Amino acid sequence: MQVVEDHDLVLLDQAPSERGADEAGAARHQDLLAAQRHRGSLAAAFRQTACVLAGQLWRLGKHSAIYGLGAVVSRLIGVFLLPVVTRYLTRADVGAVETLLSLSVVLVIVLRMGISMAFFRFYFDAEDDAGRTTVVRTSFWFTMTMATFGLVAGWIFATQISNLLFTTDSRANLVRAAFVLLWAQMNYEQLTSLFRVEERSVSYVAATLVNVIITVVSTILLVAVWHKGAIGVIVGNFTGTLAVYFVLLAYRRFQLGLEFDRGLFRQMQHFGLPLVPSGIALWVIDLSDRFFLVRMKGLAENGLYSIGVRISTAILLLLIALRTAWPAFAFSIKDDNEAKRTYGFVLTYVVYAACWLSLALSLFAPWLVRLLTTPRFYRASEVVPLLVFGGTAFIAFNVMSIGIGRAKRTQFNWVVTGAAAAVNVGLNFVLIPPYGIIGAAISTLVAYVVMFLGMTVRAQQVFPVPYQWRRLALASGTAVGLTVLGKAIDVPFAGAVALTAVYPLLLLGLGFYLPVERRRLLALVGLPRRDGGQAEHGPDGRVLEEVVVEEAVNADRGEDEPAGERGQARQV
After folding, report:
1. Secondary structure of residue 167 in the 3-state scheme
2. CA dihedral defined by 126, 129, 133, 136, rounded to 10 degrees?
3. 537 DSSP β-pair partners
4. Dihedrals φ, ψ of 543, to 5°?
5. 373 by DSSP, 3-state: which?
6. How far apart (Å, rounded) are the C-alpha atoms in residues 551 and 58?
7. Residue ranges per structural domain of the chain
8. Most buried among 229, 319, 357, 375, by the most CB within 10 A?
9. How far is it, in rounded angstroms, from Cα 513 to Cα 531?
10. Contact 173/233 with Cβ under 8 angstroms?
11. Which band of pLDDT confidence, cut at 50, 70 and 90, is reported for residue 3?
12. Is residue 68 within 8 Å of residue 320, measured between CB atoms?
């Protein structure tokens, strides 16, 4: 206190001009201190946001990777079963199996009535364990009831369904087997959803792997040893699913009491029912081409197309991993601003990975088909590039649509998916008669792109997210360009390897990466950095890795690039 008083006396003894100069200097000093404190608080905020964002992306990446492991093993084993299937089944048999599997997908959508998606939303909305248990039990008993109804109806009308699909009643038992598979899958997926909401990804994958092992052994025995043909494929599929389901049923018995909350069920229906037309439209886009091919080109052509689909479903490994972890992860983020930042980065990284995988599958498709099938199926490789890039658009659609679920504004999803389905059906009518499987693949690609664009418009209306559009365009455009180049010059195997490997480096030259991403990529490939390996700092002393977070903050204001990247960060 005395120091302040003495300072005031000194100021009074000074001339007015001197006092004014000192006061101005003191004011500037205070402004400088305030600015420094402001920069410090901003840096602290950036660091805090960086930790939160990195933590969220790490959590999604960890669970997606673990879920993806199960999906990879499952799909790879399915792909490596192709030599068995294509040697012991005719193309007509393969076509019949694929047709029934396609039918079961749409029936599952109808029978679930959107409850499976509502389960995730309402589970995380519940305020306590008792509320979450009620959500689990209500969803379980509804699913069990509808699956049993579907099974009984399928067995009763098996002959009529066989005549409708195959113009013969000789495949009625195959139809009955398909409905057993439908019952098993509906109930199995509902039980394993508990692992997903609990984020117990390791347990989920363990159940998946046991299911896969039993399925593979059963299928090989039924098809290759006992020569049961097409019905052996379907019975082999549901054998593993049923075995694991009954084990999980015993494991979860204390959570699955006799409780059904009608009020909760009505709320879940209000959320989920609008998703049913959307789900049917998705089925039309994804699987209706099988029925067009059967009617317009025959079962053999459908069997050929199904092999191309099997190869291209490797892109769905990423989708399965993401979709398995994504709803529980996305809805668990409580803060909307934090969710928006996270969703923006997730879409960029997912599209980047999907485009790179699509490029690889497109270029290596001829060798994969030759490795896994017999000569009568080699032509299936022609549809792979179209299907994998369509799959990439579908993956982006799934990330984009989460905003609508978060806002609980699902009532008009069917408009977007319905429009895309109408485009798909129209193109199937026009393109399949003259072009066969190529026409079906083009129809699928166009429909998925239309669906992604439509969902982008709708989702941004109800839950706007600052997506990184420039980076998305670079990632997808570069992958498509390299694919077209490879197909145009008919690259050999070594050329396919080179074009696939050059993709991330080409994006480096095009300015795709943020500064921290560029440094890590250069370190990965062993190229020197201009800073000699030292961390870069901006004018306020912040390490430029914080630019990643600054972009997220600026993106909330609608800016494409942060100031850091436009300025000093360009020097990387």
Report:
1. coil
2. 50
3. 543
4. -65, 135
5. coil
6. 18
7. 45-80+301-492, 86-273, 513-567
8. 319
9. 17
10. no
11. very low
12. yes
With a cut of 90, say whether residue 55 has pLDDT above it.
no
**Which of 2-16, 436-450, 523-537 has the largest mean confidence?**
436-450
Residue in the structure block whose two tokens are 């909350």? 261
- Average pLDDT rounded to a whole number, residues 468-477: 96
- Of residues 232, 249, 131, the one with CA closest to residue 190: 249
- pLDDT, tens digit (0-9, with 9 covering 90-100), for 90-123: 888 988 998 898 899 889 999 999 898 899 889 9
d(CA 433, CA 39): 66
The DSSP secondary structure of 379-417, one letter per residue, reads GGGGGHHHHHHHHHHHHHHHHHTHHHHHHT-GGGHHHHH
Query: Looking up tokens 């109408």, which residue turns up?
Result: 422
Distance CA 23, CA 21 (A): 5
Report which residue type is found at 281.
A
- What is the distance between the terminal CA atoms of the chain, rounded to a whole angstrom? 51
DSSP classification of residue 526: T
| Residue 274 pLDDT > 70 | yes
Backbone angles phi, psi at 98, to 5 degrees: -65, -35
